[in-house]
Amino acid sequence: MVYVCEFEFWASPGGNVIAEPLSLDREGTFGTSLDDAVESAADWLSMYLDDCLMRGEQPQRVSFGHALRHGGRVIAVAVSRTLGDIPAITAADAARELGVTRGRVTQLCNEGKLESWRDGTKRMVSRASVESRKED
């Protein structure tokens, strides 16, 4: 899926460059320079899409041609994401890494404590959520 979203980039009083998504009702991101902020906006947009893909939801529809809100500049940021782009392991591998049963992994997924989705008959678990769970 290719997704394009306009962001407004402007300098904050602290010297960072803020990147605000103009069509999404969400907080944005920032960078130390315009180039860094654009890269951060692409990463931010990728994570937003990953969340939508893992939940089986369509991302929010965006519009274009926004007026400036903060006197910065509007730049369209595009990313391409699929479920295959998300680092993931099978539920069985997640169980081994976490030292729990596969049934417990299913419970953690159902409780929203691990990010997962179905790939045919296999349950895939995001690598990031397994690593986060290990730290708990």
Average pLDDT metric: 95
Broad structural category: alpha+beta
Strand content: 25-35%
- Strand arrangement in the largest pleated sheet: 3-2-1-4
- CATH fold node name of the largest domain: Double Stranded RNA Binding Domain
Shape: elongated
**Number of helical regions:** 4
Q: What sequence of helices (H) and strands (E) makes up the elements?
A: EEEHEEHHEEH
Percent of residues in helices comes to 25-40%
Q: Could you give the count of β-strands? A: 7
Q: State the major sheet.
A: 4 strands, antiparallel
Describe the protein in words:
With 136 residues, the chain is of the alpha+beta class. It is 35% helix and 28% strand. The protein folds into 2 domains: 2-83, Double Stranded RNA Binding Domain (2-Layer Sandwich), CATH 3.30.160; 87-135. The protein has a 4-stranded antiparallel beta sheet, covered by helices on one side. The chain has a 3-stranded antiparallel beta sheet with strand order 5-7-6. It is elongated.
Task: Please summarize what this structure is.
By secondary structure, this protein is of the alpha+beta class. It has helices spanning 34-55, 91-98, 102-110, 127-135, and strands at 2-11, 17-21, 29-31, 73-80, 88-90, 116-119, 122-126. 35% of the residues lie in helices and 28% in strands.
SSE topology:
Elements: E1 2-11, E2 17-21, E3 29-31, H1 34-55, E4 73-80, E5 88-90, H2 91-98, H3 102-110, E6 116-119, E7 122-126, H4 127-135
Antiparallel strand pairs: 1-2, 1-4, 2-3, 5-7, 6-7
Helix pairs in contact: 2-3
